[in-house]
Fold these 2 entries.
Entry 1:
Amino acid sequence: MNIYVILKQTFDTEEKIVIQDGNISDDGVKYVINPYDEYAIEEALRQKEQHGGNITVVSIGPSRLAEALRTALAMGADEAVHVSDDAIHGDEFSVSKVLAAYFNDQSYDLILGGNFSIDSGGGQVAIRLSQLLNIPHVSSIIKLDVIGAQAIVLRDSEGDTEKLEVTLPALFTAQQGLNDPRYPSLPGIMKAKKKPFHHLTLDDLGLTETEIYARTERLSLSLPPNRKSGQILQGELHEQAAQLVQLLKHSEVKAN
Amino acid sequence: MSKSYVVIAEVRDGKLRQVTLEALQSIGLAKEHEDTVAAVVLGHQISNIAEQLSQYVSGQIHVVDHKDLEFYNAEIHFSVIKEVLDTLSPHAVFLGHTASGRDLAPMIAAYLNAGQLSDVISIEKTESEVRYTRPLYAGKAFEQKIFTEGPQVITIRPNNIAVANISDAQAEIITVEYSPPLSLRTIVRDVIRKTSGKVDLTEAKIVVSGGRGVKSMDGFKPLQELADVLNGAVGASRAACDAGYCDYAMQIGQTGKVVTPEIYIACGISGAIQHLAGMSQSRIIIAINKDPEAPIFKLADYGIVGDLFVVVPLLTEEFKKALA
Ligand SMILES: Cc1cc2nc3c(=O)[nH]c(=O)nc-3n(C[C@H](O)[C@H](O)[C@H](O)COP(=O)(O)OP(=O)(O)OC[C@H]3O[C@@H](n4cnc5c(N)ncnc54)[C@H](O)[C@@H]3O)c2cc1C
């Protein structure tokens, strides 16, 4: 089975966001694989363990991204593809176009991605890609069983669970609960160094800058307003409960 | 020249979702006077929804009513929407940032070769452009964006934009024949409704959340009772989900849902940065925690230091009295 994982590198979830000169500062910031994409990598490994095949991890981004791809290789992926080009400074429109150009030359059974990226939170790229490739997709999956050329999946839909049957090739995005990602092992890290690592540019993919020109543009950034520190209630607990309800009544909360 | 704006309406439990009215209000904020507004509504036995929508929409309401549309199937729903979009050639398509909206929007955007802005929380129109504000890092920062060219797809975060008002508009209701997609590769086998009749977490005005402090699945019961009294929804921290006390669908935070209710009540939640990312924009935050040093108290408007198993039932009683 030819399995592909599309992944993104994001800030570690512990990071505080600092705005400097109109941009989000990456000074001293620790990067990780987007947590949802980690579930996608883990699922790829489990599918390969069951059905055999080859796992390729694909990502677009600057040179620091190589570290995330190496981590995926150390977890057990077989090959990495790093697309980097100064001409790619786009949005989800651009990124999905670049990925589609790459996948048009590949043969794939399964493409896995994360439910959304925890930085920009767009939740677009994977689903856009499935459309551009004209393959079915199921987003937010919590279980995946591949049986021949079919997949039976469970999907989380705001708390409800849907069971679907999909014909491969297909694309799936991983939701929390799908699995428990493994850590890279020391032998895994050693082996990763010898695994194929491909570098591609827009030229290699036969794309020009104008074809992937971003459809959206950022005007400005801001931080949420600081919250004033509040009030710790005092007294017996039942008095506190009564006091709290009074306070809420007076703050004109629009219930219902 | 007038432009066409389209809202993809959403039906849940046989009712029009509030976020659809928020999306209609959003269109009102973005469009010019002469632009037209149309709605698309899909489902089974939805004529009452079309009637209801006609009170808000001045243009056309395209209704596709068929048994095949009872449950959401990305392929089927999209193929139907695609047909309607072909006749409308929209300048912009608005959806709710909900399970189905999040799924449909990128398909629509790819089909239209359009840009998409997801999870928009506010809209500002200037002389020359429409500016959309949306969160980054689950609300640790915000960005204001514009579309540079082409059609536009926008998903609206529930609970952030006011609902549209009923107008005297008399929409034209158009029944669209359902034709199934030519090749169907996805079949929905089963839908297990766990949230039927419950208040949706992202739309709830009041959220009662439990963390590791609830200690078990049963520990969520007093929280659910409080939420029921307040007509609210129950959420959770990741630690509670990881421990198996509740479903991941309830997780609030950077890798979970982002909620912005009027009141957020955090019970037995320490206040990790990843959790705060998902709830710190709530209007009033209340924390109940045994540990007076818990970081959540730094953010909370009101804090009660105490055992949640004592405090939460007390609160439920007090609210019952106040609401009686
Ligand atoms: C990649 C990544 C992503 C993450 N994403 C998220 C996310 O989206 N959402 C999220 O919530 N977390 C997320 N986390 C986890 C986060 O770091 C914290 O571990 C988590 O939020 C802690 O949950 P908690 O507050 O319920 O548990 P704890 O930190 O264990 O806190 C439990 C609290 O309950 C109190 N308590 C115990 N018993 C009682 C009682 N009887 N009455 C009152 N109080 C009591 C304790 O004093 C304590 O403060 C993420 C972590 C990582 C690494």
Note: Chain B has two domains: 4-175, 201-323.
Entry 2:
Amino acid sequence: MDKLPHIWCPGCGHGILMRSIAQAIENLGLDKDKVCIVSGIGCSSRAPGYMDFNTLHTTHGRALAFATGVKLARPELEVIVITGDGDATAIGGNHLIHACRRNINITTIVFNNNIYGMTGGQYSPTTPTGELGTTAPYGNIDRPFNIPELAAAAGATYVARGTAYHANQLIKLVEKGIQNKGFSLIEGVSVCPTYYGRKNKKGSAVDIMKWQKDHAVDVKVAEKLSPEQLEGKFLIGEFKNATAPEYTEEYQKIIDRFTKER
Amino acid sequence: MKNNNIKLMQGNEAVVEGAIAAGMRFYGGYPITPSTEIAEGSAQKLPRVGGKFIQMEDEIGGMAATIGAALTGVKAMTATSGPGFSLKQENIGYAAMAEIPCVIVNVQRHGPSTGLPTSPSQGDVMQAKWGTHGDHPVIALAPSSVKEAFDITVRAFNLAEKYRTPVILLMDEIVGHMREGIRIPDASELEIVDRKKPAGNGEDYLAYKVAEGESVPPMAGFGDGYRYHVTGLVHDESGFPVNSNAVADKLCTRLMTKIEDNIDDIVTYEELYMEDAEIVVVSYGGTARSAKSAVKKAREKGLKVGMFRPITIWPFPEKQVKEFAQKAKGIIVAELNYGQLVLEVERVVKGSSDIFHIGKVDGDIITPDEILSKIEEVI
């Protein structure tokens, strides 16, 4: 707590997302000495500096590659990655899909604020088409990634999405992600009133949270709704919960084959 | 009992043997010619000693995973060649700033760009020194033989652990792929250095606090019960980032001085016929083998020629070069590039001796005869 106040802007959703991770760790009763939080670069990636675990703030986009080294070298550590939409899906996109493919037991929480906040409001791979950024002054023509779909398709075994508004649900999703033996990805939809919100006339931080409340539909509820009823809405909740061989365990089997024979 | 563990192997294979003997228990990398045998050998041997190998999705990830593993307390290495070395640079800078011990092998190949992938070069001398942004010290070592590839790999790990810094093993394709018979020493014959661990409990631990009279802070592994923060940002003694000129100056200066103040411990070199040498041939790595042959032939002809071979390329052996430059009439620098280490020789010699350069960028080696004719030309 002696590191507060944090560097985030007033109204930023990242504090709520960070708290959901800390609460999930607390609820699961994990040993702080055995938790390692890894991040890349960007607004989201400053979170580990405020957390009382083994914390690693790496280079832009590379959090998952560093985390893979930590986890494989010392599998008893609970490795949790905090990354942003740009960090995870632009510069780090390759590391993301390969971490999903390996199914290494790492839990990744993507703080998605739909913008590059730290560099001042440039469009990201999740900025919706047509919206504005400082590098999209005439409207973004890129099509955005759907991060959970990307992760599920690449082989992640636990995939979910929560929001800063639905804080209690997010805690549960992070808990389940940590408990999953394999690669887990939870997208946390954040709030950026300073760059994304202001540039795109989304109103105050409270207005954006209200928007999240009004437009998020739980995936289970959505099953009963018509396409018309889902128009303009986005899904939250648990998208995938599967099992597959976990990477560090598979490697340990190779080690055991040689070391137990003797 | 006499150790008869003599094996015929490549330089690249000797690197793997040396690394495992030094205690390497993690390898993260991406295959690239002509370094591939190092990845293959590590993949085969590491699990047999309880270590881990991972083929990452790219060279950047290989370097990142190596640093992540090193942070948990294991000795970690990656290997690559030219283009891959370029990709690793940002994270090499990270390892220097965050003081994470690790070894990066660069089996140099022809360039620029993909160049001649299977041909030798010594074109990454300056990239090893200046490849990443910002100022930081570099330790780079260049073996000339298969035996040295083993010994110097062990030394690279020892220096990395002792000074908490990335160490570059600057090989070249000649040494990487040449085969020689070497005797693999017993573990008892090797000096192995391990990083200094903190004493006391986790509550009092300041990860970047340096004890009085020392320049390298002790390092706890993640998971050892000392929770702390690691970042590439300028950080205080706790590891937490701070935006302070004074802290930046103190940290970056210490990173430099921890190497500068220990030059004599780090710098190694080989000398041949230097007592009365009027002409000195400076060369390193695979090229030094041609130089040695040329110098011996020159001596047979009665020419007063000597050879100086830096084994530590960075930090450059300034003191030794300055000393012989006072006596020599001429210095010939032979290297497989357009002129890289020769710049360093010129900087150090400062005009006190004539300097000549033999460079080659066609992908072939420099032959003993080419060096001999240059000697005869300038003497």
Note: Chain B has two domains: 6-189, 269-378.
